[in-house]
What we know:
This protein is α/β, with parallel strands linked by helices. The chain folds into two domains: 60-199 and 434-592, FAD/NAD(P)-binding domain (3-Layer(bba) Sandwich), CATH 3.50.50; 200-278 and 329-428, FAD/NAD(P)-binding domain, CATH 3.50.50. The chain contains 20 helices and 21 strands. Strands 2, 3, 4, 5, 6, 7 and 19 form a seven-stranded mixed sheet that branches. The protein is globular. The N and C termini lie far apart (68 Å).
Amino acid sequence: MSSDDFNDEQLDAARARYLEERTKRLRSDGLRQFQELNGEFADLDRDPFADPDFSRDPVTQDTDVVIVGAGFAGMLTSVRLLQHDVSDLVIIDKAGDFGGTWYWNRYPGCMCDVESYTYLPLLEETGYMPTMKYASAPEIFAYCQQIGRQFGLYDRALFQTQIRDTVWDDDIGRWIVTTDRDDVLRARFLVTAGGILSKAKLPGIPGIETFEGRAFHTSRWNYDVTGGGPTEPMDRLGDLCVGIIGTGATAVQAVPQLAEAAASVHVFQRTPSAVGPRNNGPTDAEWFAGLLPGWQAERIRNFTEAVTGKHPEVDLVADGWTEVMWDDTQSAGATPEEAERLERLDFETMESLRLRVAEVVEDPETADLLKPWYGKHCKRVCFHDDYLPAFNRPNVHLVDTAGRGVERVTPAGVVVDGVEYPLDVLIFASGFEVTTDLTDRLGWDPVGRAGVRMSERWHDGAHTLHGVLSAEFPNLCMISIVQAGFGTNFLHFLSESAAHVAWIISTCLDTDIRTIEATPEAEEEWHMRLLRTAGLIANYSLSCTPGYYNSEQGNNPNGRRNLTYTGSLVDYVEIIRSWRSDGEFAGAKLDRQT
Length: 594
């Protein structure tokens, strides 16, 4: 179907359906509908993969850099610092190993949804060839460990360690970092590299604490309950009834695996995902060996251009992502005619995904419930070959909640529309905090100059330059999407951010800059730029169904400042690269040693 074939009547009908589906999902509580994995749910946040008997002596030392986070952001920052001859650094993470997302997410079927050749960083430096176009989670975790070994990061890491506090001491020009293992580290620079999807969340469903079966979050998968492992079939669900709440990117991968193993699976859906074909396959070793130096940086940029409407001359990746996202249909059109053309293109893409549901799912009623009625930029599109066919199995049951979500949880199961569904196992595929305040996701509240905590200075939301530097927090470099870039390929953003932070730190150390921070004036200029960029997609975003992209369409008091840069990631990268090339530290306050 082309946009020319999408007639006015169909367009009007689709608009009406989009509005209807959005309206039924609106809630007054916004982000408050979720709850943290603490208090009575603290056990759901327990690390099921680490040695529970681990212990070590406290560490007390001075160091140039403390990096909090041992996922790709922390690893890449460490590698880039080492390449700048900054070797005096310490990495801290509450996990038991490197990997971040890929340490925690070991649920069955987990894999990257962006091709391995653009997603996995440092492929040219490590010489590693991914086995598949879309690598599995176990392979990615093993690759993280390889990076740790190859670049000597293990000797610099403190695992199973949580930050207690970080306090800036202006007299000595250092951050005093304390941990739950009684470490005291005095660092010239502090880097927060907690990643993008690091803090799991639970749905705030009434009665959730009363469930008497076994329950866990997908990022803390309990193989003691399911049997098997990330690479082994689950063998303890054969006579059990399993429920999974959520139908986002995680559930799309986990549901087919549960369908293979469990006696019955109930999938509780508030909003369906748009699911295109994945077409995974093994890497062509001959092709990979023939790639020329510099190929990965070129391919990464090409992919981001292709999925942000920049229409590169050649689509190097040519997969579902670049097909679906080739046109940027969320930005306001320059004319009413252009706006309608973009709207038609968006409808065309989503209609093709809805038609795929009808072609794959045999039961018409189930197929209709699985069709996504929203724009393609509203939620992260998924690609999978086994998710939709899973609903053709007699043991898989879709429980659609008509956009309202689960009504309540009882000791025996889950209630939707007054009907109780008895369960033995309840799995929460409810995702992660994305647009909450940064201090909430960090898990601690940095203390800057004059004893002022970040939550106090940021009481109305974030204040940064490029999402990296902040006034009154000297030598603090942040890697997060708060007031920074964002993209389909998270690793493109993290890689560029790590390079940026490493450059700032190494340049300061090399040129005797004692402290660096943003100026309040530069923070406001950057915020205004974020607002202008966000204004280009504001109407589109408001038309979307609630989700983490738009903070669940809730009234988030800090949302106006906790923005991401909503333009192309290519443009954000150019902004921070130009800032470095200029060499003037524009918008930064410097204290040079004398």
